[in-house]
Design goal:
This protein has one domain. Helix content is about 45%, strand content about 10%. The chain contains seven helices and two strands; from the N terminus they run αααβααααβ. It has a two-stranded parallel sheet. It is globular, with a radius of gyration of 13 Å.
Length: about 100
């Protein structure tokens, strides 16, 4: 996922341009690929995500206060659920391998 895709898909999920927004968008589209397909994306076999940020946005936002996340995900719980790959997972998801650095 590249930063240029954020205007296409980010608005669908209400993502704000911020650091690693594209990195967050990749697992979100894997969990819920319908918006990507609606924009003409071809089916893909899987996603490898490197340090994407929170997969469970609601849990992360309730647990700690980070200005970067506040900017990206706002203060609305309904928005957290919509922008959370964990909450968007359905029966037909694209396989996702999430990699994070130790201590991150």
């Amino acid at each position: 996922m590249r930063a240029r895709h954020l205007p296409l898909y980010g608005e669908t999920f209400g993502l704000q341009p911020a650091s690693s927004a594209g990195g967050h968008l990749a697992p979100l589209l894997s969990a819920s690929p319908t918006p990507a397909k609606a924009q003409g994306a071809m089916p893909w076999l899987g996603t490898i995500s490197l340090d994407s940020g929170p997969l469970d946005v609601a849990r992360t936002m309730q647990a700690r206060d980070l200005p970067l996340f506040d900017q990206a995900f706002r203060a609305d719980r309904a928005h957290w659920l919509a922008a959370s790959p964990y909450q968007q997972m359905r029966a037909h998801i694209v396989p996702l391998l999430e990699c994070a650095r130790a201590g991150g």
